[in-house]
Amino acid sequence: MIKKILIANRGEIALRIIRTCKEMGIKTIALYPTPEDRDQFLETKFADESYCLEEEGILGYLDQRKIIQIAKKAKAEALHPGYGFLAENGDFADLCQKNNLKFIGPTGDTLRKLGNKIEAKKIARVVGFPLLTGT
């Protein structure tokens, strides 16, 4: 069982992940962009720990190496990307794995295959999933 998760997202999705983790007895780590933003985000108030990305706006949430660095510093066992941002990035899933962090989501290979609509449709056809005609 995972004991501590870094949430690499913000807002409502981060709050949902925090609530679920609390129900499961899992510690949570939230992120915030700059030091002055710390008290502006509900997730930093509800998470067990929070760390500064030191980057204005959305850019810090896209800095894969910085997020991995924070996860290691905080001794997280897993990383939850939320949705959007890094959740669809196969390279980020692989980077988590290389750094001994469980990526909560599909494997990097799966993300790359299903991120391409033509490849996803080929896979669906092979496994017998019903498809609509067209491209």
Task: Give the secondary structure arrangement, pairings included.
Layout: E1 4-7, H1 11-24, E2 27-32, H2 42-46, E3 49-52, H3 64-73, E4 78-80, H4 90-98, E5 102-103, H5 108-115, H6 117-126
Parallel strand pairs: 1-2, 1-4, 2-3, 4-5
Helix pairs in contact: 4-5
- Our Rg estimate from Cα atoms comes to 17 Å
Content of β-strand:
5-15%
Multimeric status of the protein: single chain
CATH topology: Rossmann fold
Q: Kindly state the percentage of residues in helix.
A: 40-55%
Q: Would you tell me the overall average pLDDT?
A: 93
Give your account of this protein's structure.
The protein has a single domain (4-106), classed as Rossmann fold, CATH 3.40.50.20. The protein starts with a strand and ends in a 9-residue tail after the last helix. A 5-stranded parallel β-sheet has the order 3-2-1-4-5, sandwiched between helices. The chain has helices at residues 11-24, 42-46, 64-73, 90-98, 108-115, 117-126; strands spanning 4-7, 27-32, 49-52, 78-80, 102-103. With 135 residues, it is an alpha/beta fold. Helix 4 (90-98) runs antiparallel to helix 5 (108-115).
Quick take:
The protein has 135 residues and is an alpha/beta fold.
